[in-house]
Amino acid sequence: MAQPPKRLRIGFIPEHFSTPLHFARTHFALDGDLIPEPLGTGALTTRLKLPSSEDQAFDVAIGLTEGFVADLGRSKTAGKEAGFGLVRTYVESPLCWAISTGAERGDVGGVGDLRGKRVGVSRVGSGSYVMAFVLADQQGWLEKGVDPFGVEVIGDFAALRKAVREGEGGNGGADFFMWEHFTTKHYWDCGELKRVGEIYTPWPSWMIAARDPKDVRLGGIVEKINQGVKYYLEHKQEAVQHITSTMKYSKEDAEAWMGTVKFAEDVRGVDVGVVDETVKVLRKAGVLTEAAGGSEHMVAIKRS
């Protein structure tokens, strides 16, 4: 007797952007297992590329555009199989990356103080890593043969916060790190961190990647996510309640974030122009080289 197919394992970052996914599961019986990955997009890509038989492997992942594109470009440069393809667009609006340090740090007062400092990142290739170099490019700090920062691979958000509080004096921590604005704001408000500045992604911020873009089960997942987004748009107070009861956001911050984000009302497909523009910026920032290629090997399902 044939075994029923396994449910798709869907990796996501457990932040406020996951609210429509929560609704897709609770109200529309999303036919897949939502699995949180707090280490971010770099960890999502790693788990997408694990053998499907491994318990930690993902079939689908919902993460940051820059992290997915950077990983696909580096794989191409190294002559390796990509391991996944971009299949859907989740969030159309850009992401605001906050730049933070420890509240008591006197050596970091503004963005101009960051050159030559140590940036803490969750993983090499993560959004926190990629955007540090986009920041360096915007500031004019990229010089051939000279690194704009020292890079310290720290781990998750809690570890990054600890690293910048303890990092002064070169004792193995970090001098600053970058994370999404509203996730970070609570820690400015409570006096744990200090805001240094911010930078927006020059591209739509979230996409959906799949290990096997031809998996027929993806169609059902897409429909449920679309329903989750629609429910989110029509039930804002329920969304606020979910965010404030499960994450460290105030009602005011949740509502402020909701005024800035634009989820794709139909997540089907990926705009190749968006991916090529992202590649262009990442090349200029020194994250990718010309050998990384472009959307032709990254986008598995195009928007019509």
From TrEMBL:
A Gene Ontology cellular component where this protein is annotated is:
periplasmic space
Report the residue ranges that make up the Ca3427-like PBP domain in this protein: 97-199
Q: Name one Pfam family in it.
A: PBP2_Ca3427_like
What does the UniProt entry say about where the protein is found? Periplasm
Q: Tell me which UniProt keywords the record has, alphabetically.
A: Signal
Q: Where mainly found?
A: periplasm
By what name is this protein known? Ca3427-like PBP 2 domain-containing protein
